[in-house]
Amino acid sequence: MRVLFIDIDSLRADHVGGYGYAGPTTPNIDELLDDAVAFERGYVANSPCMPSRAALTSGRFGIANGVETHGQQSQRIDRPENRTDWAGSWTENQPGRPWWTLPELFFQNRIPTIGVSSFPRHPAPWFYHVWHTFRQPQEPDEEMTVEWGHVSFQTPRAETVTDTAIEELESVDGDSFFLYAQYWDPHAPYNRSEDEIERFRDTPLPPHPTEEQLAEHREWDTLRGASQEGIETRGDLNEMISAYDAEIRYTDHHVGRLIEYLKSTGQYDETLIILSGDHGEEFGEHGLYREHWSTHDGTQRVPMIVKPPADTPIEQGTREHLITNVDFAPTIADYLGESPPARWQGASLRPIVESSDAAGRDAIVFDHGLYTAQRAIRTPDWKLVRTYHPGMWDGVLPEYQLYEMNDDPWEQNDLAADRPDLVDSLEEELILWAERHRTGSVDPLRRVAERGPSGYNSFKDGFEGV
């Protein structure tokens, strides 16, 4: 069994060529799509970085695994050994392996389990539990003329991640492996050259924010607001997005090198490849620039691509099914021929990969816990956003937002006041979902709202609202 999971930080789905983007950002990912299925409605179950990866590796939503934000509230994941003073672990001995994580599933099956990641910049002990090999490539601490200080913040570079991943694959003894390759790029700060950025300056801008919205945003005194980020015109916005696109192109090049290694060594066809992101990035659609801070699609919707082994069925193309990254762990277990641990909460995507006619969900639910505390429910037609803590945007973020997603994909026309019946109906579904999926007596996202989300607690003294 060969599995490659490619995790790209801050990658929006709508900036990938195969998802319809006009700029030449992702030629290698687009080529992968020729052998794969792309999910158009793929959302991370939790965002941003730490909650997203907790959901991915635990196979459980944040409401069950307990990781809903960054900082102190993210350090412990909900597992039996974290609930007791017992010196050993209950995880391995319980019948049915209910608490195994995705890396543990491979480890316990004696399949080489390799992580190559920039994630150590977010300390999280649960993330490093039970890998055969975990590599943390380190860049030289060079001084750079970027506003965030030095290159070590954006470490390691995509080039180094791919070099390290290939080095590990060359040392694999046998025909099986699980390789998790996590790319920090294209997360800010954007450090591409003038020539790399120039390639994207003629790419059409999105319709929002308009010039009128920009003028309104410049009145906001807020973290990552237009004034703080130097966004005066749509020309300034174009420069920011062009730099972001250049980072995506740079990362795509090195992702392509990793895929090419599999092809050149004859391993590509029989490798299950999944490519996704931990969250996206917003560029002023709702007032914040170069930031992931909400359950809007700019933050929550990412590319979700599955290329199965060549000897398994596939109906190549796109899917409209609603999925989250909690579905990846049971999908991988399915291809491995293993039953998912009892506590996992996702569903295998394999039936949908094999046939576009396979049944899907009527709705999905996802959370965000940095700067704000929000939960959203997404149906094929609607999205309801429930804000439990508005962060620094008290008075701007309403308690409820309702969007008709087919007519309003940029989430600009809030219909909550016009459709109170639908708001009530969708909120009832949210409540029932929470009751089904939480494992403790307290909803962890509500606890985040009570204590204040990470980011908000750090910046609130400097930004008192908008």
Would you give an account of this structure?
The chain has 466 residues and is an alpha/beta fold. Helices cover 29% and strands 17% of the residues. The protein is built from 15 helices and 15 strands. It has helices spanning 27-33, 49-58, 62-65, 102-108, 158-170, 194-198, 211-217, 226-229, 234-264, 297-300, 328-336, 350-354, 420-437, 444-451, 456-459, and strands at 2-8, 37-43, 46-47, 113-116, 133-135, 177-183, 271-277, 282-283, 289-291, 304-307, 317-324, 364-368, 373-378, 382-389, 400-404. The strands form three sheets. An eight-stranded mixed beta sheet has the order 5-4-6-1-7-10-2-11, with helices on both faces. A five-stranded mixed beta sheet has the order 3-12-13-14-15. A two-stranded antiparallel sheet has the order 8-9. A hairpin with a 3-residue loop joins β13 and β14 (382-389). The chain starts with a strand and ends in a 7-residue tail after the last helix. This is Sulfatase. Residues 68-90 are annotated as: Disordered. Pfam families: Sulfatase.
Please indicate the percent range of residues in DSSP E strands (runs of 2 or more).
Answer: 15-25%
**Gross morphology:** globular
- Order the strands across the largest sheet as they lie in space: 5-4-6-1-7-10-2-11
User: Which structural class is indicated by helix and strand composition?
Assistant: alpha/beta
- Distance between the first and last residues' Cα: 52 Å
Mean pLDDT rating? 92
- In DSSP terms, counting alpha (H) and pi (I) runs of 4 or more, how many helices? 15
Helix fraction?
25-40%
* H-E order: EHEEHHHEEHEHHHHEEEHEEHHEEEEHHH
Low-confidence segments, given as residue ranges, are: 145-149
Radius of gyration: 21 Å
Q: How many individual β-strands?
A: 15
The largest sheet is: 8 strands, mixed
